Amino acid sequence: MTATSHETTKTRRSAGIPFLLKTAFINAVIALVLFSLMIGIRTEAGSDGQLTYWTRFGDLASLVAAVFGGSIVIELLRQWIGATGAEKLVPASVQNGVSFIGRYLAPALLIFTLLVPVIFYNQRYILDLAILVLTYVMLGWGLNVVVGLAGLLDLGYVAFYAVGAYSYGLLATNFGWSFWVCLPLAGILAAFWGVLLGFPVLRLRGDYLAIVTLAFGEIIRLVIINWQDLTGGPNGVSGIPRPSFFGIPIDNSDDGLAAKLGIEYSPTHRIVFLFYLILALALLTNWVTIRLRRLPIGRAWEALREDEVACRALGINTTTTKLTAFATGAMFGGFAGAFFATRQGFISPESFTFQESALVLAIVVLGGMGSQLGVALAALAMIGGFELFRSLETYRMLVFGMAMVLIMIWRPRGLIGHRAPTVYLTKAQAISSDLVKEGHG
Amino acid sequence: MSEETILSVDRLTMRFGGIVAVQDLSFAAERKKITALIGPNGAGKTTVFNCITGFYKPTGGAIRLSHDDGRQIALERLNDFRIAKLAKVARTFQNIRLFPGMTALENLMVAQHNALMRASGFTLLGLIGVPTYGEAEKRAIALATDWLRRIKLLDRADDAAGNLAYGDQRRLEIARAMCTEPALLCLDEPAAGLNARESAALSELLLSIRSDGTSILLIEHDMSVVMEISDHIVVMDHGVKIAQGTPQEVRDDAKVIAAYLGTDEEEAAAVMEGGT
């Protein structure tokens, strides 16, 4: 085995120089074609509105040369490292360390999260960012039920977020109902819409399912824009009440929480309260999902992702199984939506575009489908990372996109690339995600 | 239909457009016996299986299943998962369909879905953690453990099903079907791809399942397995039944030999003899 691989390397090296030049030349030609219009010719509207253009062949030549040189360097690196996977480059001691960290990562993260308002009490920006990250953690965990566990590719998850937000916004502004009454209602309404969406798409699989769910997300948004009497159309719903601490308002009035506790009021109190509220909601989502996975319904979801035909042969009602997955995921989306509405105090259809669905889906996929910890880490990386690159201004998206590509090369199955079994006889062994199916919708 | 019959197929016809896959097929499978359905490739065996297990809706004919308690179920009217759930017919597949990313034990737990769903109060009681569900889950694990021991995979219980050897996967699929506690077990080529030793172990397993009181309907190409364990054999060719009877009767049937090996009967007899 080793001898053969050595020989292969040798033959590759001996055929190296012509091969190197050929690869580099092909890459350079592709770069030339791509960049000749983008870089080589610069066009602009002149002073009288006419088209002016000038050429930048110098820049073009240097870019093509860079691609040529870069290809050679990359190819040489590849030959030097050999055909082994990246994990073989990491020494065993480091890998052991990583697995050690992995075991204590979740509790450590949880403790840190609980302490965030204490550590960063005076840094409003960080608290706001933490609330945003936690909102996406919750959305990611909710969508994870549908995409990660049941394997149903849902591109319209934002619809349930919108249903939840508008449920709370409209019930609170029209009837004056409190947040704690509206929260379960928002969840139930979103779950109801989840079932409504589920029924027509039950027979669809894969790409078809994705397209129909995408359309569903857009339909909800368009209905919200056009149903002006109810939703206020593009103007949105404003003046949504802030949440209260179980009836006690968090403000500087005499019967506010601060006055009752006998401490001086600070606007940060409300932010800290919102932080713990979304943390509690997210942890509830996590707890319910972890429990559901160990119940027959959760196992049926995962079995459905693995093989739907086998599920039917075992007498599992795939219709209700899929509907419960849609409803459960939608319910958590609805909770998160209600939180979003109470946090912002104002909602409009602009907040519920397809981009949100795509972002949440990216979090689930990046995290590793089905992994709770992975989704949390991915939300942190996606939302926090995006903020981290804020100083790069124009190049922010470019750097962020490259970071995403690198992560997907390094970890094609997501950050957490294994599945934990739901039940075991002697020892719970992690299952490599190479075996786990992604589902066919 | 006699007391002893568990499955009776009556004038079953299945057409796909202009192609007649199965035509007027009638046969019966006896209770607590192993009935084999054999025939050359393309004879329509798997189509019959798919009709019985609800994956196809037959164009015509009747399929009756009678339970121990005298209940009769018209399988051609049930569809999809209901045949496995209500009629208690379990099946395996020609190309293995396990849940590869779940452990062997999890595969057997998924098979007990309907019983566990009832025990978990359709999830709601299980979510708040009522003790009755905990007990039901323990029983389910015990049943699964029992089956893992019978198929000699107890030490691989916590390994992913996709990591098991091919022969082990075949046996696990049978165990998974048995965990639904079926009245009739339908096996689609269980010995395909097994070596001689694994085939022998499979025969032993199927005989033990029969002696536990489960009726078996079997499609198989491996004649050593078929001839050794079958109580009754139905031979199909081109969608129609050409012979039936005990292994000895079928082996000597001129039409069967012709269907399998052309008309040279001497040569055919030699091969059939060698297979046993």
Biggest sheet character of chain B: 6 strands, mixed
Total domain modules of chain B: 2
Strand order in space, largest sheet of chain A: 1-2
Q: Cα-atom Rg of chain B, whole angstroms?
A: 20 Å
| Rg of chain A, Å, rounded | 26 Å
Topology-level CATH name of the largest domain in chain A: ABC transporter involved in vitamin B12 uptake, BtuC
Structural class by secondary-structure content of chain A: mainly alpha
Helical run tally of chain B: 12
Describe the structure.
The complex is a heterodimer of chains A (441) and B (276). Chain A is mainly alpha-helical and 441 residues long. Chain A contains 17 helices and six strands. In chain A, 38% of the residues are buried. The N terminus of chain A is likely disordered. Chain B is of the alpha/beta class. Chain B folds into two domains: 110 residues, 3-Layer(aba) Sandwich (Rossmann fold); 86 residues, P-loop containing nucleotide triphosphate hydrolases (Rossmann fold), CATH 3.40.50. Helices cover 41% and strands 23% of the residues of chain B. The radius of gyration of chain B is 20 Å and the shape is globular. Chain B starts with a strand and ends with a helix. Classes of the chains: A mainly alpha (441), B alpha/beta (276). Chains A and B meet through helix 11, helix 12, helix 13 and strand 6 of A and helix 2, helix 3, helix 4 and helix 6 of B.
